[in-house]
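Re: that chain you flagged

S.,

Sorry for the slow reply, it's been a week of failed gels. I finally had a moment to sit down with the sequence you sent. For the record, here it is as I used it:
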Amino acid sequence: MMIVPLMDILRERFSGARALEHVAELVQHHRIQASPGFRAAAHYCLDRLKAADIEAEIFSFAASEDISYWSLPLFPEWEVSGATLDLISPRDAARPLADFSKNKISLIQHSAPIEAEADVVVLEDGEDEDDYRDLDVSGKIVVTRGQLDIVRHLAVEERGAIGIIYDGMRETPPVRGRFDLPHARQYMSFWWRPGKSRCFGFVISPADGMWLRDIVRERRQLGESPPRVRASVDTRFRDGQMEVVSGLIPGQTEDEIVIISHLCHPQPSANDNASGAAVALETLLTLNELVRQGVLANPLRSIRLLLVPEIRGTCAYLATYPDRISRMVVGVNLDMVGQDQSKCGSTFIIERPPDVSASYAPDLLEFIRDRLDRAPSFSGQPELPLYRETSTGFSGGSDHAILSDPLVGIPSPMIIQWPDRYYHTDQDTIDKVDADVLKRVGMLGSTYAFFLAHAGEEEVRWLALEYVARHKRRLVALLQEFVSRAFASGRCSVTLASLVERKVDYLNERGRAALETLRRLEDISIDDYAEEINAFSVVERRRTRHILAGLPPDEPEEEESECSIPAEHDWIIERKTPGPVDVADHFGDLSGEERRTWQRLRSQHKGKVGTLRSLLLYWADGRRRLSEIVDLIEMETGSRYPEFVATYAELLGGLGLVDLRQPVEDGDAGE
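Prediction finished late last night. Pasting the structure tokens below so you have them in one place:
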């Protein structure tokens, strides 16, 4: 079945209202990974699937301190009965600061039990050793806006603080600055590793944080004793289980199209990610109903739904059932999809898989999206979207990053809305979710999934042509940007021209790789399509050179030393397992100098570390030097990061998380 008739069917049958009902059920649960609340939400989804006679089950994976799935250590199951934090002195300011029964995000998730009274000490960030100079935090509770795991290690594990009060707010410009939500609380969690001291923590709003900090400062200036709080945390850790919900519409072969969405996060977490899980659930229910009624034919490939604890659940499922990976042809990740844009300030995004896992998949999603919710312009043409939308390169941070890892090999774009004014706060509530948006995403995801599940040779050849057309547009846009920059400066930069030539070659090579993934659907020859891309690039390059012929060239710029990696540090990096590895998770295992190096890197590349870390690991195939990886990341992102690549790789190697070795020169092969 071709796409337009399929979309017409799904426009009539997919219900955003039903998806919103699923959101309403899911936000009733405190859905922390490996917890009773997550389990209850998982069983709600399982019950809906089984009620529709869908082949469904819950996979349970051991959750304990000594379990790892691929590179990711897990943690024990965690349960909360209650938690409160009260300011008890000075008496004239005494008041409750946090109560878990009223606000689940007021407790730092995975907190340890405690019954204690303690003085309060203020840290600005607490991420640097110097922040603790002449400051006694032993036996006290620290107030911080800093990175939680670093503060926990420096303040609690090394200096004896007993707990943390967090009053920070992650900024998501331009829709949220620090004080745009002065009374909101930021979702925070401890991620325990074996051998690390557990502690407790609470979250207060930025407004309450300013108020508490002022009290501390005033009393210090007056020479009076610091404020004192009473903390009560009733939690339990135990060896338990972590669940993954699976639903299957069986096809005629074992190949699977995967719809994945994370089900976790604290109550309410409506958009992140009850909305994605609800749409994914309703997608399978709708497609199953249409197949059973004979409106849609039984698909050639199965459609697999996975509702997971984010990242860890995906790793657990794939690491435990590695034989299933080869069946998974392609996926799509639904994360934070339901936002009312007028309230949340978000944009509807299709995020492409990383270039190392180039695929036709995001181009197919774009084709479908471009036919959703359109209206004619004043003159009747062209049709215009009724909402903010775009497509972006790979960023990562969710389950598509696990599927698209080249050591896994399931190319998966993500559908997401970003930024979100209420992201990871207690104000991410169901009133910010729009049923019409849920329907839009449901139509997009279900059309994509069923088309790929049903696609035969005719559909695959059309998809190849569509991919080639969109690839040509990207190529023309690149060359036109180069031409515009040259004419704006009045000169043709030799260095930029060389970069553009390399970029064109890179795009064409990645284009062929994307076309190759079509052969997982149907074993067609892609040579003619790849040759069309190459021939088109020859013509466009020639045209570009002709346009620029009259401009005087700049002299080639000399590469500065910091733009390359010294030969003695130009390692070959080899990964030990699929899945993410993160220096931040091992902060306590770093030396003092390594910590300072890591913090400098994180500060210099703020907001980019997660993406750069992933790209470094994805391009590391056990044969490439770090300098080659720097070049590839530049082709993918448009910027060079040699220091980050070299330094981060050496930190990973020093922690034993990857293997580093010097390349063997041709003349040394026999030694």
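What I noticed first: The chain is about 40% helix and 20% strand.

Talk soon,
D.
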